[in-house]
């Protein structure tokens, strides 16, 4: 479904914007943040178009419920990405660690794989590879998350450690939500094969 690919691309664009928000001086972040927040509306519009489309099309490449679920999960993933941006903006001059860029890199890779997978929903061999890669990336993100949490234990003042924990947890929610997309794809492969 082309609309699923579009939603996945908007999610990837959101991760790019989040990287820009985090890498831009504080005085220049707000407009990028507004662009990021605006993507939520864009993806919801695409989700609504997808719902109309699958109701009006006689044949779909997958069961309608699966297409809807994938769209909903992609939207939820973007919500988590936007939440990371919201937290970062709310915290102002938050000290970044290398773990931030590591998690952003993993999120970006997950999004790239997801865009490709949404364009190949009829190729179960490719989807199985996607599923496996997403599991590996999530495990890598979990290790990074744990390292981030333990690194902040003694390195910051308590309130700064708490802020780092919130940022890390919210980024992990984005990673896990993309893993849910892959898990749903795995279920489709098993059921439809």
> Beta-strand level of the residues, as a percent range?
under 5%
Remind me, CATH topology?
Methane Monooxygenase Hydroxylase, Chain G, domain 1
Helix content: over 70%
Cα-atom radius of gyration? 17 Å
Number of domains: 1
Count of helical stretches: 6
The CATH superfamily bears the name Phosphate transport system protein phou homolog 2, domain 2
What is the 3D form? globular
**Helix-strand sequence:** HHHHHH
Q: Which structural class matches the secondary elements?
A: mainly alpha
Mean pLDDT: 90
* CATH architecture type: Up-down Bundle
Span between termini: 19 Å
| Poorly predicted residue ranges | none
Count of strand segments: 0
Mind summarizing the main beta sheet? none
- The first-level CATH class is given as Mainly Alpha
Protein name: Nuclease PIN
Organism: Nesterenkonia halobia
Q: What is the fold's blueprint, element by element?
A:
Elements: H1 2-23, H2 29-56, H3 64-91, H4 98-118, H5 124-155, H6 158-192
Helix pairs in contact: 1-2, 1-3, 1-4, 2-3, 3-6, 4-5, 4-6, 5-6
């Amino acid at each position: 479904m082309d609309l699923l690919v579009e939603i996945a691309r908007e999610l990837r664009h959101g991760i790019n914007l989040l990287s820009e928000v985090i890498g831009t001086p504080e005085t220049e972040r707000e407009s990028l943040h507004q662009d990021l927040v605006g993507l939520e509306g864009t993806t919801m519009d695409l989700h609504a178009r997808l719902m109309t489309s699958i109701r009006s099309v006689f044949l779909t490449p997958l069961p309608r419920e699966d297409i809807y679920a994938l769209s909903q999960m992609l939207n939820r993933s973007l919500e988590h990405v936007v939440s990371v941006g919201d937290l970062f903006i709310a915290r102002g001059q938050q000290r970044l660690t290398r773990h931030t860029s590591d998690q952003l890199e993993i999120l970006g890779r997950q999004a790239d794989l997801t865009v490709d997978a949404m364009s190949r929903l009829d190729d179960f061999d490719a989807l199985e590879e996607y599923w496996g890669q997403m599991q590996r990336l999530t495990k890598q993100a979990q290790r990074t998350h744990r390292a981030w949490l333990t690194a902040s234990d003694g390195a910051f003042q308590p309130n700064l450690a708490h802020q780092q924990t919130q940022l890390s947890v919210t980024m992990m929610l984005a990673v896990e939500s993309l893993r849910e997309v892959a898990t749903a794809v795995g279920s489709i492969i098993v059921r439809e094969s």
